[in-house]
Specification:
The structure holds 2 protein chains of 2 kinds.
Chain A (H helix, E strand, L loop, with lengths): L15 H23 L4 E2 L3 E2 L11 E8 L5 E8 L1 H12 L13 H21 L9 E3 L12 E8 L2 E8 L1
Antiparallel strand pairs in A: 1-6, 2-6, 3-4, 3-5, 4-7, 6-7
Helix pairs in contact in A: 1-3
Chain B lengths: L6 E5 L3 H13 L4 E5 L2 H14 L4 E5 L7 H9 L9 E5 L4 H9 L4 E4 L4 H17 L2
Helix pairs in contact in B: 2-3
The chains are: A alpha+beta, B alpha/beta.
Amino acid sequence: MQTPDMKPKNTSSASPEIFKMVAKVFVESTLYVFKIQSNLDISVGSISKVVDTNPAPDASLFAKILVKSESGMEAQLLLGFSKDTFLGLASHVLGTEFSEITDENKDLVTEFLNMIYGVMKSKLKDEGGFAVKMAIPEVAGVEVLSPLPNTTSILIPFKLQYGEFVGLLSL
Amino acid sequence: MFDKTTKILVADDMLTMRGIIKKNLSTLGFTSFVEAKDGQEAWEKLEKAAAEGAVQLVLSDWNMPNMSGLDFLKKVRSDDRFKGLPFLLITAESEQSQIVEAIKAGVTHYIVKPFTAETLKEKLEAAHAKFSGSK
């Protein structure tokens, strides 16, 4: 299946250096948050630029967050989980065996993204001198990965013992 | 360290975060929890518990709808019944200005997400020492 809106975008307002730094911080922050909060081993796979030939990742649960820097630069962070990966993670982190995605567990993705965002804010300020505004993560009620329009987007696969999940950065 | 029967009020608008906090507290041996989804509900439950026999420790998120964790803390500290209640704020923010604001409002300790059960234990021990020392 192709995601219709995963088209090549080369109109990022960020310079390649800034994009690279934000991507590095996103990856590092995601690894850190999952390692600390879930106490699971986590690894990152090959990062790819989002183009319309990307196969759609196996993901059914998403959370996304829009971030604005004080200079007006916009970015979108998104996490996408397959059902199996999510249920394994949720069962491990919450100490309850889940067999379905429910209201009781589904905001876990949002919570993890919120933590990643918090860590990123500190790192971006410390390492890049960026001050970013507060933003509230939201669970995206979508079944496709949707990059932020008019940006460059990359897809980052992460692996837990319960399976893979993806991060999508649009900047 | 706090007694394992300590009744703990856990306030967070995210159901799963309350679950994570409770799971970590359970790992440390705690068994008695009261939950609230925002500062307003936390305040109402704290008052109700005061009449019934008491919440002895509060772990509250900072960013919550209706009443934030900071406003909840200020309300708690403005009430003579709860001036000595150990109150830990949990947040994804680690900005110095926020920490200073929380200290000024009377927070006992401050936990930055993500956190491990070990970090939570250390903060609880520090909060208990501070609370015991102030008696």
